[in-house]
Amino acid sequence: MNEEFYVGVLDKLVAFLWKIGPVVIEAIVALVVGVFLIRILKKLLKRFMRRANTELSLRSFIESLATFVLYGVLFATIGIIIGIEATSFIAMFGGAAIAVGLALQGSLANFAGGVLILAFKPFRVGDLIEVNNTLGFVQKIDILYTRLKTYDGRMITMPNGNVANSNVDNRTINLTRRVDLTIRVGLDEDIDKVIAIIHESMSANPAALKEPAPDTFLDGIEEYCLRFTGRAWSDTEEYWPIYWDQLANVKKALDANGIKIAIPKREIVYAPTPPQESKG
């Protein structure tokens, strides 16, 4: 009896495999062919966007979105091949989409943030931006995330929802930037002389733009020093090299003219001790 039972189970298993075998093979073939076609379509899409001179930020976003949609269509096709009816599959997919949407509200917000970033273009791939106290170059804008590379080589991934709802300081959106220096010298220094030294030093820098012209002025009188501000304009790409050169050149010029950088000082006065009365 046991032998008959096992033979019956084996026959049913063979019949089942024989029935679903072609379907499984079709599904595997569809998966392999689909992955191959998706790769080809992605290459064609990249080539088309390259020829159309599409922005780098928009390219990465479209590539990510296209990958998501194409694989979704592929899995839907495989589901229909396996035997899931189109209407049932659509209903199941719709229900799953609602459930996933409720569970991934943050991701949907990030997707919307990515759309807003591409629509209003507060920054693009390659721009130097500061967001949420993080300064870095935009490397990629995906469907859900923006990636920044910092000056020290770190890769920071930020959700697009947070980026779209934060203040974005784009340091490279304009062609020129202003270099500001704050210099503090002693209260007894000659104001006109200090202004002339700082202004001449900053104007002599060949990398500083002639228009707008550099300017220098007394910006405040503090309790221990005179505060001067020197300003000069530069090309955005040369901002930091010019800033460092200006800072060093102004310090050297002040030293050469005997003007010292102010150091905070405090004057302490001791009250005289009253004489003690002698007891007789």
Overall strand count = 8
Radius of gyration computed on alpha carbons: 35 Å
Shape label: elongated
User: Beta-strand percentage?
Assistant: 15-25%
CATH 2nd-level architecture of the largest domain: Orthogonal Bundle
* Proportion of helical residues: 40-55%
Determine the mean pLDDT: 81
Classify the fold: give the CATH topology of the largest domain. Answer: Helix Hairpins
Sequence-ordered SSE layout with sheet pairings:
Layout (H helix, E strand, L loop, with lengths): L1 H50 L4 H27 L3 H18 L1 H16 L7 E4 L2 E8 L3 E5 L5 E5 H5 L3 E3 L5 E10 L5 H13 L11 E7 L4 E10 L3 H18 L24
Antiparallel strand pairs: 1-2, 1-5, 2-3, 3-4, 6-8, 7-8
In words, what does this structure look like?
It contains 7 helices and 8 strands. With 280 residues, the chain is α+β, with helices and mostly antiparallel strands. It folds into 3 domains: 20-103, Helix Hairpins (Orthogonal Bundle), CATH 1.10.287.1260; 114-170, SH3 type barrels (Roll); 176-256, Alpha-Beta Plaits. Strands 4-3-2-1-5 form a 5-stranded antiparallel sheet. The protein has a 3-stranded antiparallel sheet with strand order 6-8-7, with helices on one face. 15% of the residues are buried.
